[in-house]
Every structure is written in C-alpha cells, then in structure tokens.
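Re: weekly structure request thread

Next one in the queue (443 aa):
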Amino acid sequence: MSLRQRLAQLAVCLQEPQKVARFQRLCGVEAPPSRPAAGPSAAEEEAEAPLAGDARRRERQPGAPGGPQPPGSDRNQCPAKPGDRGTPNGVRNALASELGPAPARRAAGLRRNSLTGEEGELAHVSNWPLYYLFCLGTELGNELFYILFFPFWIWNLDALVGRRLVVIWVLVMYLGQCTKDIIRWPRPASPPVVKLEVFYNSEYSMPSTHAMSGTAIPIAMVLLTYGRWQYPLIYGLILVPCWCSLVCLSRIYMGMHSILDIIAGFLYTILILVVFYPFVDLIDNFNQTHRYAPLFIIGLHLALGIFSFTLDTWSTSRGDTAEILGSGAGIACGSHVTYNMGLMLDPSLDMLPLATPPITVTLFGKAILRILIGMVFVLIVRDIMKRITIPLACKIFSIPCDDVRNARQHMEVELPYRYITYGMVGFSITFLIPYIFSFIGIS
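Done, posted below.
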C-alpha cells in the first residue's frame, strides 16, 4: 500500500463520527435512551465509502438513517430553510422539544442557533467538572470572549500587542472561514454524536476555526510579548499547549468537529503564522502611520468580503466573516486616528523590555473602570448600529423586516449589518473609548 493510500485511510479514520462519540462517552456524555439509534457502524461505512474518504458520505436523509441519498439531492446544502428545525448539512439532530422534560443530571444543549432556531440535544453528563471545563474551552473561541479579550489588551495591558493580535486573528479566521466554504464538509453525524452545542452547526466543518483561533492566539501572545515584557519563557510554554488543547478538545466534546477537523485547523494555523507573522509589524505600522491607510484598510476588507461571499448558498459563516473583517477594519482605522491624535502612544524602543508594574488599588480600580465604562459603550454602539443597519438594509433591498431572524438569513441584510456594526465597534475600541478615558482621566 502506497503512502498516499495510507494517508487517505488515516484521514477517513480520523473523520469518523464514531470516534467523536467514543470521546464523548469517555468524558461522561451519553445520549438519552429515547434518542434514535445510530446508523451503520464505522466498519460498514468505511466499506461503502471510497478510499479517498469524502466526508459527505455520512449524510443521511432525515427519517431514513443509513439510507441512500435520492438522485439530484443537494448533499452539501449548508443553511436550514426558514422555519425548518432540522439541522443543516444533512446532519440529523434530536431536539430537546422531542425528548420531553429533562430529568436530573442531564445537561441541556448549549447556545441555540440564533438564525435557524435549532437547539442542542439533552444529554446524560456524568463528569460535570469536564463539562464545565470544556464549556470554558469552547467559549474561548466565541464572540463573548473576543469582545472582552481584545479590548482588555488594548485598554489595560499593551495596545501594540492588542492591535497585532487582532491582525493575526483576522487573517487566521478569514482564511479558515473561506476554506470551510470551499471544502464544504459537514459536521459529524448525529447520531452517533451528541450535539451539545449547535450555535455554529449551520456552518461547514473543515477546518475547525475554533482550533485555529485557539492555536493562533496563545502562540501570537507569546511571540508578541516575549522580549517586549519581562517574564520567564516557561510561562508561555505552559500557556500555549494548555490553551490550545482546551479549545481543540472542547470542540470534539461538544460534538461539533471530527478529530481530522481539529488537526487540520491546528496545522493550517501553524502554516499561516510561519508565512504571515513576519509581516505583522509592517502591517501595524502601516495602519498607524500611512496617510491613506484608512482608505486602503476599508477597501481591502471590503474586497476580501466580496471575494468570500460569491459562493452559491448562504451560510452563517459568511456573517461571521463579515463580522471579523468589520472588526479588523474598525480597529485598524481607530488605531490610525488614535496615533495621529496622540491618545495611546506606544513605549519607545529604549524602554524595552517593559517591567510589570506593581498592582496597586489605584491601578486595579482604573482597570476595572476602563472595562466597565468601555464595555457599556461598546454594547450601546452595537445596539444602536444593529437597530439602524438591519431596517435600512431591509428597506434598500425590499426584504420584509417584521421577522428579524428571517431577514438576517438574506445575505443582503446580514453582511451590511455585521460589517458596519462591528466596524463601528472596532473603531470605538481603539479611538472613541480611549478618547473618553483620556477625557475623564483614567487613561
């Protein structure tokens, strides 16, 4: 057997949903007894599938586990139809509403899909410390974490590191989301997998952007801070594998990714960092100092968005991509204005490496005030822009706005809403809010 055939067999093996289900059972997660039985065994599926191992072979029509797809069916359709509570990508998912009231020691599915209304399964959980640990791990790749993490770096720790973390995050997430829509592999099949979280279930699976973010952020933190700040390198060497493994394993635990998705996301991120990290300083300096940087930033991010939104069907991943690009453009433009107004100047090179300041009551109090005031302002900006952009986009493109969920499933509404809203959020984080901090004396 050739090396290529062995690698193909290994890929098929790592992609099997039975391995995800086995990991879940090992961690104490099992489906309730009332759940429909799983389809064919892994050996049967492998015998039926070609050696190349197309992940889409696992898809089944709802109500006919294990049955063949009818001729002409769209085996790669990503979004669920409005009002259809079945899961996208041809993956069947038992809903909480079908299982009745949950008895004690069952965990409800996390974070319903806001666009499709899909809910996660109820599940028997016997190891609650692992459950909460992996809930934390999966949140390290969600919007709530990002909207707290990046502002905290920019407002309280090191604005330069925060900005460059955003540059790396935008690049990694953009390439990951685009790759998903090109490869178009579905999520692991359920059954046998228990879908504890379905918030991103209407997106494709390969590669895992959670794994990509969970790999890029800790590695970039160490690369950007070591030598700039005084701390033992062992701290970074401990942080990277702990953070990365927690996020990656949490996605298998939640039933959202196969082992192959996770490995591919990790390796893809390493490749991106090797190629693009040497240019991060150049990009950040350009964003701050070049006279026409805002025009270039906005034009580039719009062009990237247009390029990635020309595929055939709507997917929530494209809304996420618009959000990522909008945030990156807003933060970059805000840093340009902040630099030219002298609000948040970076330390000069002769001050490096920076020493960690002693934690005093005043320092701690100002940090808390900056977070509280800044996040209130961020939420206000986001809410105002949401109330403006969605009805405006609906009016421009003649789309009914009485049901916001259905309206947002139209690309013409979701993309302007995400791009403009989070562009303003990013601009606020790096300019408007630091200006308020300077005005009230807590910068």
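Residues 361-396 form the longest helix (36 residues). The chain has a mean pLDDT of 79.
Next request, please.
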